[in-house]
Amino acid sequence: MKRISRAVAVAAVLALAAAACNANDKSGTTSGSTAAAEQGGTFHILSTSKEISYDPAKSQNLGISGIHLVLRGLTSWKTDPSKPTELVPDLATDTGQVTDGGKTWTYKLKPGLKYADGSPIVAADIKYGVERSFAPELSGGLSYHKTLLAGADKYTGPYKGGELASIETPDQATIVFKLNKPYGDWPWIVSMPAFSPVPKKADTDPAHYGEKPMASGPYQVQSYTPGSKLVLTRNPNWDKSTDPARTGLPDSIVTDMGLQPDVVNQRLIADAGDDKFAATTGTSVPAALIPTISGNPAVKARVATSPSGALEYLAMNTKRPALANPAVRKAIEYAVDKQAVQVAEGGAEYGGEIASTLITPGIDGYTKYDSYEAPPAGDPAKARQMLAAAGVSNLNLVLAADNTTGLGVAQAIQQGLKRAGITVSIKPLDSEPLTDLITGNKPDFDLTVSSWLPDFPSAIGNIQPLFGTSEIGNGGYNISRYSNPAVDTAIAAATAEPDRTKAAGLWGALDKQIMADAPVVPLIYARNAFLHGSKVQNFYLSSYPPYANTLIVGLSK
Q: Are 317 and 329 in contact (CB under 8 A)?
């Protein structure tokens, strides 16, 4: 799961009131354009990144991002603008067969799968790909499987540690994972980059493998110049009939790298030359450009906005004496002016919908409810009454805030609480010291604002990392320091449930249970807004993830 600054989440990744999936087009298949996507052409991606690695062991990319154009997994994601993201079989024949009370998962590979060089994809390649993700020299990737696979706690990868016994390949088409505990979301885990096949014979230079990996998806890396350009061309051995997640429409995909965010947006606004066939997948429309875009219908029609996105929330440090009393925290639920926060983030259309839940729209388990039913601008009179009833007066709190992206929201919260008689001092910090403070073991703050986006569409990502007792301190993101044994027990039960419908119900109940204790104030479901060229089709943002599905984008002539 990712804590993401507002600049990444909605103003600039690894980051709507139910607005349409884009500004003008209610169908969600394009943004204000009616042309159909066709086979062929070159799709251009305008990126601020200076380096791109397609090494699956080192990647934290979401299931619809560029690395999955080149690499397939056992499962994959299928998005739709009008319904939740769906898990589909990719290299595997299904999303997994579970036995042993939820601790053993078995997958069979589809027949005839090949790499770009024509060699067969076999189960041992997936096993090896997962194993190399444990190598210290290939650190940085998503690590869920590292805590779940049996016996993996001391495993150090295939270069020094041999094989991992909890991954078995009884034949070329079968792979079996043995977990140390039941985990119902394992089918989502095997969609992550680390579960892409890597043939051992191709891993001769691990440090540079990501520059030209063995391609299993519709594209392969033709050339890569760090800081400048990445060029993908067709994989001649990709079989569309085996792939429900990718359309493979463009003939080639070129990523222009190292661009400034304002350059990306200005080029897409101008819509000239190759930029008609271009889009950005990570540089959101900044608040400063909203008037320019809103005043030009032709440009506004090329803005894709997400119905929802990361949860932006106010965390209250429950271990601080001033906030240990739930009655005080509940008073703050009423005092916060969420509407002012929304305005500070760009308003309802581009900033986000006012939030009241922990599970975000687009994730199974989300149900719209409001435990406190305060007006959008807050209810300072009720907050004062609640504080008085709790015998609290002269409440003084310290709000730790990001000094480059978070001061506007911090000031909106400060003013709202002031109307309720609560004094807030803002403590501005750079991003790294702020993270160290709020996730460390000496949390010298009362309040802080954070944003959170799960790595896969399961409500476990909205609940467990933010409210599990195990996630307090030591770099964990339970920054409200909330600890409730009953909640921990319920988290364990929901985590183990393999039936996704039942699990969603358990997570939904947890959402309400936690909010009854008021450790955080949900502020907004932060929208993303990305521009694209006039010839780009199938470019939309779903509720989750609030990014364009790169795997299905096509072009019109």
A: no
